[in-house]
Amino acid sequence: MAKIKIACLPGDGIGVEVMASAKEVLQTLATVEEDLKIELVDFNWGSDHYIETGEMMPEHAIDTLKGFDAVFLGAVGNPALIPDHISLWGMLIKIRRELSLSLNIRPARVINGIQSPLHSPRKFDFIVVRENSEGEYSESGGVIHNGVNEIAVQNAIFTRQATERAMRFAFDLARKRESKVTSATKSNGIVHSMPFWDRVFQEVAKDYPDVKTESIHIDALAAFIVTKPQNFDVIVASNLFGDILTDLAGAVMGSIGIAPSANLNPDGRFPSMFEPVHGSAPDIAGQEKANPIGQIWTAALMLDHLGHLNASKRIIEAIEEVTKQGIKTADVGGAYSTREVTNAICDYLISSAQ
Ligand code: NAD
Ligand code: IPM
Ligand code: MN
Asked: Is the ipTM reported for this complex over the cut 0.90?
């Protein structure tokens, strides 16, 4: 297979630490997987770059990224020094928008060796398909009136095209799995966009008569993720609902530090972008406490997307082997550092290949 070219953007805070881990895992894997040839190219864009230059990424950044097979991102945000709306619109959201990454795919399942905080979790394995380009994150609104009676407005724009695209992706994915799609809604008459969301869901469902469907209000769905996560297969959600559900899903797995995500460019015109669900975690940055599994599992999603299915499986196997041995960071009840977990995963990749 041809060499794959990956643009690595560690970003800020623990993004830098977990990116170093995941790169090491990828490089180790390339030494034992004959088919896997990877070129990793680093770009140190982010908050430090902003402090030096006044911009999160240089002007040519998006064009540069278009020359890669995939973009691998750590996390963005240094809220103590730069307001989040500057760092996020200047990098994370800019990349999502300008590379047309309109789908955000976020799996959640029981990982061997990682204890869920639920008392008696049944085995669960579901994927959230999050609409990633509009909805509650639409660029329409702002403070429209100043003074004592200030008014801030956020328009949640739902287009037929983007809504249907997320739903069709969810149905196609369900067909390869347990054939069930749950729609995260809020159609009890309060949020105007949601009856539209429901209508599109019902229409799309007609094209997939073999797939079971259900619609659950987002508030109840959040509760069910805690009380019966095993009931879900594919969940399709709007941008903000999907954002919140996937931190919750990460927590139910054991920690948001292990949750992966893929931001997909559906038509393959531009590279897709892969990043963990978590952020830059300034509260633990620089302390070797960050769980690298979210970033490493994300690397597995990236390899899977690029057609390296075997290499991807090996990463997941290595993660579960190491967690089963109890080599884990503190967020999932262990006493090991970022580096120790990374080394153990790399060691397993080498020893299991012999
Ligand atoms: P966060 O995800 O960074 O942290 C939330 C909590 O989870 C913290 O207590 C943190 O220590 C813990 N945590 C997160 N990742 C962990 C890991 N790998 N191992 C162990 N513990 C982990 O969310 P936040 O505190 O709301 O945001 C911090 C900054 O990150 C903000 O600037 C925010 O905007 C940004 N952010 C960026 C992204 C991204 O770039 N994709 C995602 C979310 C938040
Ligand atoms: C995520 C993050 C981002 C989002 C923020 C940092 C803009 O929380 O990737 O889940 O809300 O999409
Ligand atoms: Mn989030």
From this structure: yes
